[in-house]
Hints:
Helix content: 10-25%
Strand content: 25-35%
Mean pLDDT: 82
Low-confidence stretches: 52-66, 193-201
Amino acid sequence: MTTTLHRVLVDLAGEAPSVRMPEDLWRRGRRLRWRRRAAGILACLLVSMTAMWLPSPNVTGSQFAGTDDRTLPAWAAQPYLWQQTFSEDPNGPAKLVFETGHSLDLDTSLVVVGRDDSFRLVYLDPGELMGSLSPDGRYLLGDNLVDLVTGQSRKLSPAVSSHWPAVWSPDSQSAVAVIGQDDVVPTTGPNGERINDSTRLDNIVIVSVPDGSLRVVHVAEADVFRAAFSPDGTRVAIAVGRDAQNKELLILDVATGAVQRAVSLGERQQIAGSAAWSPDGNRLILTFIEGCLTAPSCDGPTPDRPARQRFHLQQLDVDTGTVTDEAVRGLQDRPNLIAWRQGAPVLSVTNDADNSCAIVRLPAGQSPETLPLRAAGYGCPSYPRNALEQWTLDGPQLTPSPWQAQNWAYVVLGLIVLTGAALVVKLGRRWRRRSMTQRSRVAPEPPR
């Protein structure tokens, strides 16, 4: 630019009329800016509220559609704190169910892992127990009868006692349970006499899944109770008694409730578990406790770490009542026979010292075989009996998808993303202003 041109432009600028600016121009700009911000916040709130009422993104309908995988995982991990709840999106039938403390209510909750490998959380009421999983994995019977496929929950009347887990029939259409008293702990006087009200008895009932009805099959004082259905579902074996010294094993006809056989049990004997009836229907498997009767009362190396309970299995001939001891002795911890696999019993074995669990198979005359079945959380996971007996084991480890979340988690995520985007935009504008200021300071003056 020449000196003459620069002088001409300066003169023209001096003669030009000044720009008329309203006195409240700055306030108008600020109001416009705040209106835009308020509109953006309102839009975010409307989107968030809409998202809370819309169905959550369902992984089972997309990624896992049609993947009814009949393989049990070697390991199932903990759920996320924001894991989708079962009540909002049922995912049954279940592949496994286990208890966890990894939930937002900081209390014990259930994790239901569906056959599509999806994870769902079930928040329990105070004092509520997990319940019993049906052999086909569709139903969970505890304080209520829950259909894991539809999510429907039926309250039984009268309610069954949660102190004794219900035992399912092989076809998953009925279960044997106890209508008991809240006071199930024996109370004795100074001389050892029983002072509980002996006129109050416990009803042993058959729960019908199709209609939720209860039918009494036996009346007994069931401070000691275990049961097992025969393979054809026509008979049920129950162990009842007022205490460990007064136990009796009864074989009942399911249709009539008639007692077909009664066998006295010693204080160290017990029905091995819900699958204690052998596949051929001729034998019942019992557990015999060796040494001390209960692990907490055992004399151990230290008071804090008592010796682990030991046991071995016995076979009771249903027709003759003859009991035969198994050759393998000294098995450790607290057992529960839950299935049969390749002709051998499968037990979940709990170590009461650290609440750890192992699923083991006991081939005849051989050492226990630990099966690759574990899950995070508390105690032993619960698997459908049909899956334990027929499915492939040692499948890939399962971890929940972070996108199987409750609706509020998507709202929080959206707000975090919007806040982050707004912060990035604001920082970008500040950086551009600073860059322009620095460039204007270093720009050379035009020649005169």
